[in-house]
Amino acid sequence: MDLKGTIVTADAMNCQKGTAEVIIEGKGDYVLVLKGNQGLLHEEVRAYFDGDCRETLKGKPGCYKKTVEAEHGGVAVREYYITEDTDWFSEKKKWKGLKSFGMVRKKQKIRDGTQEDELRCYICSIEENAEEFERAARRHWGVENKLHWQLDFTFRDDKNTSMAKTGAKKRQIMKKIVLSILSLVKSSYKLSMKKIRYVLSLDYENEIEKMLYFFIFLTNTKWCCFA
């Protein structure tokens, strides 16, 4: 893949040494979420950002950014920290391109007076640039939230009871392909994705033909059919 000039973001499941290597070989950069699946690495990075470290980064140019926004009936305050101080990490050389660690602290005040506090840690190949780090993290959340909501609402993904890992993985791939197609033709139908699926179920042969016409028209793709 040609990833030159691109920052690739991924959730904790894809935070792997192999993923980092592929991205760097493609001349891109990465911002990968760390969670419990990385065990000690997640614990070490989180411990690094505890205490005085965050206060130090606040006073260092390019290492800190704060945003305040209205969100879900309350106010969300996010603090972004990023540092190139990575030499203490004993397995640094095993993560190709590793240049920095990042952390996002989110505090959300709800109208009922309650407060939520969330921490997310990241492993990155980008330099100390809080603006760039914030953009990468926020855009990833936007895609992730939109995708997960549509999978649940349109495909009732939370009701999925697939037990086999391979089967569940293939179902997810197919759902995401279908979701991509539905998102492309949504403006032509002027209906929600869930309602488009319902319309398809009523007259599949005619509707799928119409959908493919919309799809071809919107993507401006030339198709050839061989009988």
TrEMBL record:
Superkingdom: Bacteria
GO molecular function, one term: transposase activity
GO BP terms: DNA transposition
Family annotation (Pfam families): DDE_Tnp_1 (PF01609)
Boundaries of every Transposase IS4-like domain copy: 4-161
Family matches, as NCBIfam families: transpos_ISAs1
UniProt name for this protein: ISAs1 family transposase
Lineage: Bacteria, Bacillati, Bacillota, Clostridia, Lachnospirales
